[in-house]
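Quick one from the shared queue. A colleague (R.T.) flagged small monomeric GTPase as missing a structural entry in our internal table.

Convert sequence to C-alpha coordinates.
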Amino acid sequence: SNDSTLVVQSTLITFELVALISLNFQKLFIYRGFSLFMATDESSSEMVQLETKSKQQTRSANNRVFKIVVLGDGGVGKSALTLQFVSHSFFENHDPTIEDSYQQQAVIDGQVALLDILDTAGQMEFTAMRDQYMRAGEGFIICYSITDRRSFEEALEYYKLVSKVRNCDHVPIVLVGNKYDLEQHRKVSTEEGQVLAHRYACPFFETSAALRLFVDDIFHALIREIREIRGCDKAISTRKKRVRMS
Protein backbone atom coordinates (compact mmCIF):
# COMPACT_ATOMS: atom_id res chain seq x y z
CA SER A 1 0.00 0.00 0.00
CA ASN A 2 2.83 2.34 0.92
CA ASP A 3 4.64 1.33 -2.27
CA SER A 4 1.53 2.17 -4.35
CA THR A 5 1.27 5.57 -2.68
CA LEU A 6 4.91 6.27 -3.42
CA VAL A 7 4.44 5.29 -7.08
CA VAL A 8 1.41 7.58 -7.42
CA GLN A 9 3.22 10.46 -5.73
CA SER A 10 6.28 9.88 -7.87
CA THR A 11 4.13 9.81 -11.00
CA LEU A 12 2.39 13.05 -10.01
CA ILE A 13 5.72 14.75 -9.32
CA THR A 14 6.98 13.56 -12.70
CA PHE A 15 3.89 14.96 -14.48
CA GLU A 16 4.28 18.25 -12.60
CA LEU A 17 7.94 18.48 -13.58
CA VAL A 18 7.12 17.69 -17.21
CA ALA A 19 4.32 20.26 -17.17
CA LEU A 20 6.61 22.85 -15.57
CA ILE A 21 9.42 22.15 -18.00
CA SER A 22 6.94 22.22 -20.88
CA LEU A 23 5.49 25.51 -19.67
CA ASN A 24 8.92 27.05 -19.21
CA PHE A 25 10.00 25.78 -22.61
CA GLN A 26 6.83 27.26 -24.13
CA LYS A 27 7.54 30.57 -22.43
CA LEU A 28 11.11 30.42 -23.62
CA PHE A 29 9.97 29.54 -27.12
CA ILE A 30 7.43 32.36 -27.11
CA TYR A 31 10.01 34.77 -25.73
CA ARG A 32 12.55 33.70 -28.30
CA GLY A 33 9.94 33.89 -31.00
CA PHE A 34 9.06 37.42 -29.93
CA SER A 35 12.72 38.35 -29.85
CA LEU A 36 13.17 36.89 -33.31
CA PHE A 37 10.14 38.81 -34.55
CA MET A 38 11.42 41.97 -32.97
CA ALA A 39 14.84 41.43 -34.51
CA THR A 40 13.22 40.81 -37.88
CA ASP A 41 11.08 43.91 -37.45
CA GLU A 42 14.11 46.00 -36.50
CA SER A 43 16.08 44.58 -39.44
CA SER A 44 13.19 45.45 -41.73
CA SER A 45 13.16 48.97 -40.32
CA GLU A 46 16.92 49.24 -40.79
CA MET A 47 16.57 47.97 -44.37
CA VAL A 48 13.92 50.62 -45.07
CA GLN A 49 16.17 53.28 -43.54
CA LEU A 50 19.13 52.05 -45.59
CA GLU A 51 17.02 52.01 -48.76
CA THR A 52 15.77 55.54 -48.04
CA LYS A 53 19.32 56.70 -47.33
CA SER A 54 20.52 55.05 -50.55
CA LYS A 55 17.80 56.82 -52.55
CA GLN A 56 18.70 60.12 -50.92
CA GLN A 57 22.38 59.57 -51.71
CA THR A 58 21.51 58.68 -55.32
CA ARG A 59 19.32 61.76 -55.61
CA SER A 60 22.06 63.88 -54.06
CA ALA A 61 24.63 62.39 -56.46
CA ASN A 62 22.31 63.05 -59.41
CA ASN A 63 21.91 66.64 -58.27
CA ARG A 64 25.66 67.08 -58.57
CA VAL A 65 25.80 65.91 -62.22
CA PHE A 66 25.24 68.54 -64.91
CA LYS A 67 24.90 67.62 -68.59
CA ILE A 68 26.38 70.43 -70.66
CA VAL A 69 26.43 70.73 -74.45
CA VAL A 70 28.85 73.04 -76.27
CA LEU A 71 27.44 74.35 -79.56
CA GLY A 72 28.67 76.62 -82.32
CA ASP A 73 29.90 76.82 -85.88
CA GLY A 74 33.02 74.92 -86.94
CA GLY A 75 36.33 76.56 -86.06
CA VAL A 76 35.05 78.93 -83.35
CA GLY A 77 37.08 77.19 -80.63
CA LYS A 78 34.53 74.96 -78.87
CA SER A 79 37.02 72.14 -78.35
CA ALA A 80 39.77 74.57 -77.33
CA LEU A 81 37.53 76.09 -74.64
CA THR A 82 36.44 72.67 -73.39
CA LEU A 83 39.98 71.29 -73.26
CA GLN A 84 41.24 74.40 -71.47
CA PHE A 85 38.55 73.94 -68.83
CA VAL A 86 39.16 70.20 -68.43
CA SER A 87 42.95 69.93 -68.82
CA HIS A 88 44.27 73.52 -68.65
CA SER A 89 45.85 72.97 -72.06
CA PHE A 90 45.57 74.79 -75.38
CA PHE A 91 45.82 72.83 -78.61
CA GLU A 92 46.14 75.18 -81.57
CA ASN A 93 45.77 72.41 -84.16
CA HIS A 94 42.82 70.26 -83.19
CA ASP A 95 41.01 67.76 -85.43
CA PRO A 96 37.44 68.79 -86.30
CA THR A 97 35.09 67.27 -83.76
CA ILE A 98 32.17 64.99 -84.51
CA GLU A 99 31.40 64.43 -80.86
CA ASP A 100 33.67 64.24 -77.80
CA SER A 101 32.64 63.96 -74.17
CA TYR A 102 34.52 64.95 -71.04
CA GLN A 103 33.91 64.94 -67.31
CA GLN A 104 35.27 67.52 -64.92
CA GLN A 105 34.59 68.06 -61.23
CA ALA A 106 34.50 71.60 -59.86
CA VAL A 107 33.47 73.39 -56.68
CA ILE A 108 31.09 76.18 -57.63
CA ASP A 109 29.72 78.48 -54.92
CA GLY A 110 30.86 75.99 -52.28
CA GLN A 111 29.03 73.05 -53.87
CA VAL A 112 30.59 70.13 -55.74
CA ALA A 113 29.51 69.77 -59.36
CA LEU A 114 30.36 67.04 -61.85
CA LEU A 115 30.20 68.49 -65.33
CA ASP A 116 29.40 66.00 -68.08
CA ILE A 117 30.43 68.01 -71.14
CA LEU A 118 29.58 67.15 -74.74
CA ASP A 119 31.72 68.92 -77.35
CA THR A 120 29.73 68.78 -80.57
CA ALA A 121 30.31 68.99 -84.30
CA GLY A 122 30.22 72.43 -85.85
CA GLN A 123 28.08 71.29 -88.75
CA MET A 124 24.30 71.43 -88.84
CA GLU A 125 24.16 68.25 -90.97
CA PHE A 126 24.27 65.78 -88.07
CA THR A 127 20.54 66.23 -87.51
CA ALA A 128 19.55 63.03 -85.64
CA MET A 129 22.58 63.22 -83.36
CA ARG A 130 22.04 66.94 -82.82
CA ASP A 131 18.40 66.55 -81.74
CA GLN A 132 19.36 63.73 -79.38
CA TYR A 133 22.00 65.69 -77.48
CA MET A 134 19.83 68.80 -77.42
CA ARG A 135 17.13 66.80 -75.64
CA ALA A 136 19.63 65.24 -73.23
CA GLY A 137 21.50 68.43 -72.35
CA GLU A 138 20.52 70.49 -69.33
CA GLY A 139 22.47 73.56 -70.31
CA PHE A 140 24.13 74.92 -73.45
CA ILE A 141 27.19 77.01 -74.23
CA ILE A 142 26.67 78.66 -77.62
CA CYS A 143 29.95 79.86 -79.10
CA TYR A 144 30.95 82.14 -81.95
CA SER A 145 34.24 83.70 -82.95
CA ILE A 146 34.59 87.48 -82.72
CA THR A 147 36.69 87.20 -85.92
CA ASP A 148 33.92 85.46 -87.90
CA ARG A 149 30.66 87.27 -88.60
CA ARG A 150 28.99 84.17 -90.03
CA SER A 151 29.60 82.23 -86.81
CA PHE A 152 27.85 85.03 -84.90
CA GLU A 153 24.81 84.69 -87.17
CA GLU A 154 24.90 80.90 -86.70
CA ALA A 155 24.79 81.39 -82.92
CA LEU A 156 21.25 82.73 -83.29
CA GLU A 157 20.31 79.66 -85.36
CA TYR A 158 21.65 77.36 -82.65
CA TYR A 159 19.57 79.20 -80.09
CA LYS A 160 16.46 78.75 -82.23
CA LEU A 161 17.22 75.03 -82.62
CA VAL A 162 17.64 74.50 -78.88
CA SER A 163 14.39 76.35 -78.17
CA LYS A 164 12.55 74.31 -80.80
CA VAL A 165 13.85 70.91 -79.65
CA ARG A 166 13.42 71.62 -75.93
CA ASN A 167 10.08 73.41 -76.33
CA CYS A 168 10.14 75.06 -72.90
CA ASP A 169 10.05 78.60 -71.56
CA HIS A 170 13.65 78.92 -70.42
CA VAL A 171 16.68 76.79 -71.27
CA PRO A 172 19.96 77.51 -69.43
CA ILE A 173 22.30 79.05 -72.02
CA VAL A 174 25.56 81.01 -71.93
CA LEU A 175 26.59 82.99 -75.01
CA VAL A 176 30.34 83.07 -75.71
CA GLY A 177 32.33 85.23 -78.12
CA ASN A 178 35.66 83.41 -78.37
CA LYS A 179 39.12 84.41 -79.70
CA TYR A 180 39.34 87.66 -77.76
CA ASP A 181 43.12 87.40 -78.18
CA LEU A 182 42.63 88.14 -81.90
CA GLU A 183 41.18 91.59 -81.26
CA GLN A 184 42.93 93.03 -84.31
CA HIS A 185 40.83 90.73 -86.53
CA ARG A 186 37.52 91.45 -84.79
CA LYS A 187 34.42 91.33 -86.99
CA VAL A 188 31.77 91.26 -84.25
CA SER A 189 31.62 94.06 -81.68
CA THR A 190 31.20 93.43 -77.96
CA GLU A 191 27.97 95.46 -78.04
CA GLU A 192 26.47 93.12 -80.65
CA GLY A 193 27.18 90.15 -78.41
CA GLN A 194 25.61 91.94 -75.45
CA VAL A 195 22.47 92.73 -77.44
CA LEU A 196 22.10 89.11 -78.55
CA ALA A 197 22.62 87.88 -74.98
CA HIS A 198 19.98 90.32 -73.75
CA ARG A 199 17.65 88.86 -76.37
CA TYR A 200 18.42 85.36 -75.06
CA ALA A 201 18.17 86.60 -71.43
CA CYS A 202 21.43 84.76 -70.74
CA PRO A 203 24.97 85.49 -69.47
CA PHE A 204 27.53 86.67 -72.04
CA PHE A 205 31.32 86.39 -72.06
CA GLU A 206 34.09 87.21 -74.50
CA THR A 207 36.77 84.57 -73.99
CA SER A 208 40.18 83.45 -75.15
CA ALA A 209 40.96 79.74 -75.09
CA ALA A 210 44.58 80.57 -76.01
CA LEU A 211 45.00 82.88 -72.98
CA ARG A 212 42.57 80.96 -70.78
CA LEU A 213 40.54 84.13 -70.35
CA PHE A 214 37.12 83.66 -68.69
CA VAL A 215 37.16 79.95 -69.56
CA ASP A 216 36.14 78.73 -66.11
CA ASP A 217 33.60 81.55 -65.83
CA ILE A 218 31.44 80.35 -68.71
CA PHE A 219 31.06 76.85 -67.28
CA HIS A 220 30.47 78.13 -63.75
CA ALA A 221 27.86 80.61 -64.99
CA LEU A 222 26.01 77.82 -66.78
CA ILE A 223 25.97 75.64 -63.65
CA ARG A 224 24.41 78.55 -61.75
CA GLU A 225 21.75 78.89 -64.46
CA ILE A 226 20.96 75.16 -64.27
CA ARG A 227 20.80 75.22 -60.48
CA GLU A 228 18.37 78.12 -60.63
CA ILE A 229 16.10 76.20 -63.02
CA ARG A 230 16.31 73.08 -60.86
CA GLY A 231 15.36 75.15 -57.81
CA CYS A 232 12.31 76.58 -59.62
CA ASP A 233 11.24 73.12 -60.83
CA LYS A 234 11.57 71.71 -57.30
CA ALA A 235 9.49 74.56 -55.85
CA ILE A 236 6.76 74.03 -58.48
CA SER A 237 6.74 70.28 -57.81
CA THR A 238 6.40 70.89 -54.05
CA ARG A 239 3.49 73.29 -54.60
CA LYS A 240 1.72 70.75 -56.83
CA LYS A 241 2.08 68.05 -54.15
CA ARG A 242 0.61 70.39 -51.53
CA VAL A 243 -2.35 71.17 -53.81
CA ARG A 244 -3.02 67.45 -54.37
CA MET A 245 -2.82 66.74 -50.63
CA SER A 246 -5.26 69.55 -49.82
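Residues 2-63 form the longest helix (62 residues).
The longest strand covers residues 99-108.
Added to the table.
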